[in-house]
Design brief:
Elements: E1 3-6, E2 18-26, E3 29-32, H1 37-42, H2 47-53, E4 63-67, E5 76-84, H3 94-107, E6 113-117, H4 123-136, E7 164-167, H5 175-199, H6 207-221, E8 224-228, H7 230-236, H8 239-245, E9 253-259, E10 267-278, H9 298-313, E11 318-328, E12 340-342, E13 348-350, H10 358-370, E14 376-381, H11 385-391, E15 396-400, H12 403-415, E16 420-422, E17 440-441, H13 449-458, E18 467-471, E19 477-478, E20 489-490, H14 495-506
Bound molecules: ligand BES, manganese (II) ion and zinc ion.
Manganese (II) ion binds at residues 278, 280, 355, 357.
């Protein structure tokens, strides 16, 4: 991965391929952001004027490259737009910094080293720049330089991710800055781990290989891991996981991956939907709706990455991850619409639509997670198309059985720069899932489908445990052109929220 360093050099003396500066929209045109003073000086104080001549406006994500002036060691200056100038006395928002750093890092693909001279007032701003740059520099593993299989796709040095991000203007000898940079590096590495898993084609990642990934990481980072295979799942009565997985040649798995800290007095349980491919099953998805369904394990990838991040950061909280892994395929052994499954909780579910499979695998994992009486449970899932219709492609929905907990999760997401919105779980939608042959059906009213799914899950969560459900169907997988620090493909949605939630729990800020 791209390296992150805190540099003691100035933007003028740093030896690098490029130096990145920030520009913003001012009342009278382009304004050069703090941090770029040395660069501006080399341009005789006329950097803003030069950039305007080149057509720069300071708009968010805008990238302008220009040859460096005499007196700068780096041959290229890259000006990146930060958007509107903040009000007097306010610094640039962390998310604006993250996005700008991401856009710059992306535009520097193929370069070895770049200095980032963006406005970093404090350690948190430096962390945002570091995080944005490392996330923006991401390229899917097989496309990284040297990783080619020698056939198919050619990878040359030009397509290699930016090699090193040197943060300028911070306080490299300050403990707070060092800790912030180290945290960004770990967090970005784990988000990129989730992205790699999501981007893997579904013929390379099935429940078994996903579980093996968890075992390998557990060994590396000292985590406890248990894998229930199809035999254990059948014996244990995991009717939801078995019912969804039984149509596939690649049988299901339930992975428990746990990080414990000797001084922890709180335990957070994270549950992830891990459908390695969602064809819809017998209720087969039509063409046009199944091409990106390898992304249906994004929740499990986020949970996995967050548990490893908590361990690498040494947080004083126990974090247990539950990965509900299955492949949803149609076949002669697949669950039929009309079948009744007996879930791990003992409840029976009439499967009316085999494409509503996520709630079935999550239900078993939520019941199992509840048995350990954690202090809170958060599940993450690409659960419903309805949530994408409601909130679009960049915002995840948050539902919960506890209003205060839902508010906390929403605030935490906002703080780390993940767009989310609280959603209700109106109790009148429950009756739509009434079944004449089972305790409930896996489908209800079409209207409010995301909320119906939330209500279904709620039935499988332990009574007194605060629980939140993040439906990341919109933001998990990005099909458009890259922007800011968001690449095409897997995004790593929810990892930052989960990690900050663990940090807050460790600090005793929650419940
Ligand atoms: N994995 C899909 C949801 C999804 C849609 C994820 C778009 C990412 C992007 C889920 O399993 C699904 O198929 N849900 C159905 C539920 C319905 C049958 C009740 C849906 O949303 O249509
Ligand atoms: Mn589905
Ligand atoms: Zn699905």
């Amino acid at each position: 991965m791209t390296a992150l360093t805190l540099s003691t050099s100035s933007a003028a003396t740093l030896r690098a391929d490029a130096v990145v500066v920030g520009v913003a929209k001012g009342a009278k045109g382009v304004v050069v952001a703090p941090g770029a003073e040395a660069v501006d000086k080399a341009f005789g104080g006329k950097l803003a004027a030069v950039l305007e001549t080149l057509g720069a406006s300071g708009a968010e994500g805008e990238v302008t490259k220009l040859p460096a002036a005499d007196g700068l060691k780096a041959p290229v200056v890259l000006a990146v737009g930060l958007g509107e100038t903040p009000a007097k006395g306010d610094g640039f928002g962390h998310e604006a910094l993250r996005r700008a750093a991401g856009s710059a890092a992306r535009a520097l693909t193929g370069s070895k080293k770049a200095g980032f001279a963006l406005p970093v007032e404090d350690a948190e701003a430096a962390a945002a720049v570091g995080e944005g740059a490392l996330l923006g520099a991401y390229t899917y593993a097989p496309n990284r330089n040297g990783a080619s299989n020698g056939k198919g796709k050619k990878n040359d040095a030009k397509s290699a991710p930016l090699g090193e991000v040197a943060l300028l203007g911070g306080k490299p000898r300050d403990k707070e800055f060092q800790a912030a940079a180290a945290r960004s590096e770990t967090l970005a590495a784990e988000i990129n781990r989730a992205r790699d898993l999501i981007n893997l084609p579904p013929n390379d990642l099935d429940p078994k290989t996903f579980a093996a990934e968890a075992q390998t990481a557990a060994k590396e980072f000292g985590l406890k891991v248990e894998v229930l295979d199809e035999k254990a799942l059948k014996k244990g009565g995991y009717g939801g996981l078995m019912g969804v997985g039984q149509g596939s040649q690649s049988p299901p798995r339930l992975v428990r991956i746990a990080y414990t800290h000797p001084k922890a007095d709180k335990t957070l349980a994270l549950v992830g939907k891990g459908i390695t491919y969602d064809s819809g099953g017998i209720s087969l998805k039509p063409a046009g709706h199944n091409e990106t369904m390898k992304c249906d394990m994004s929740g499990a990838a986020a949970v996995f990455a967050a548990v490893v991040a908590a361990a690498r950061l040494g947080l004083a909280v126990n974090v247990t991850g539950w990965l509900a892994l299955a492949e949803n395929m149609p076949s002669g052994s697949a669950t039929r619409p009309g079948d009744v499954l007996t879930m791990y909780s003992g409840k029976t579910v009439e499967v009316l639509n085999t494409d509503a499979e996520g709630r079935l695998v999550l239900a078993d994992a939520l019941t199992r997670a509840s048995e350990e009486s954690p202090d809170a449970i958060v599940d993450v899932a690409t659960l419903t198309g309805a949530m994408v219709l409601a909130l679009g492609h960049r915002t995840f929905g948050i539902m919960a059985n506890d209003d205060a907990f839902r508010t906390s999760v929403h605030e935490i997401a906002e703080e780390v720069g993940e767009q989310s919105w609280p959603m209700p779980m109106p109790s009148e939608l429950r009756k739509g899932m009434d079944s004449p042959v089972a305790d409930l059906a896996n489908m209800g009213e079409r209207m409010g489908g995301g909320l119906v799914a939330g209500l279904f899950l709620k039935e499988f969560v332990g009574e007194d445990i605060p629980w939140a459900h993040l439906d990341i169907a919109g933001p998990a997988f990005h099909e458009g052109a890259p922007w800011g620090y968001t690449p095409k493909g897997g995004t790593g949605s929810a990892v930052r929220t989960l990690v900050r939630l663990a940090e807050r729990t460790a600090a005793g800020d929650l419940g």
